[in-house]
Amino acid sequence: MRAHQIMTRPVITVTPDTSIVDAANIMLQRHVSGLPVVDTGGKLVGVVSEGDFIRRTEIGTGRKRGRWLRFILGPGKSAADFVHEHGRKVSEVMTKSPLTITEDAALAEIVELMEKNHVKRLPVVKGDQVVGIVSRANLLQAVATLGRQVPDPTADDDHIRNRVIDALDKNDWCPFGLSVIVKDGIVHLSGVITEERSRQAAIVATENVAGVKKVHDHLCWVDTMSGMYLNSPEDEDMAKAS
């Protein structure tokens, strides 16, 4: 399989000038653990993730180093830590020049990059524009969906997938972080909804796409106020049966 067959799109992004508070709220509300950072032209300039919020003065987790270690590391490291712990904008805490992959990247290549560089997500780019993102969750979904099925999805499945994404993406109720996997015309929908009626709308829209034989619902409902989430009824039933 390739990146374009499992990646999440459209991608939720922030800008370098987005505030730390706004970025944290977006991640909580959209139920994502990282966000690509793009400039005004849409070019990828960084990635901000949950790990960037661990060492923060607001929660009393700033680094406390002894005098000797501070001397060894030098003032530059202390200055960098201060910016990361006190910065108010995404540009001050994000990882700059992040690793990226193309739409044709094989899953084996993606996993190797993640393991070698200790990252949990990789932006998918076309030129310098972000067109998707592949996270560990996408890989997990691929394993759960296709782990016992060979060969890879066909070209027809790819066409169906593109039509499903196009059909959902144009609506304001489209799930956040939409992930669509298709095998033999059977569609698996993953993502986040904040309104339960969006679930049925997404299923119906998918069922109306030519070539779709069946739709499996893995959409997760999230309460934007509390961050509480519920798995889809289908996934809940599967969990009870196992």
TrEMBL record:
Residues 7-65, 94-150 form the CBS domain. Coiled coil: none annotated. This is CBS domain-containing protein. The keyword Cell membrane does not apply. Gene3D superfamilies: 3.30.1340.30, CBS-domain. Residues 156-223 form the BON domain. Keywords: CBS domain. InterPro entries: BON_dom, CBS_dom, CBS_dom_sf, Diverse_CBS-Domain, UCP036990_CBS_BON.
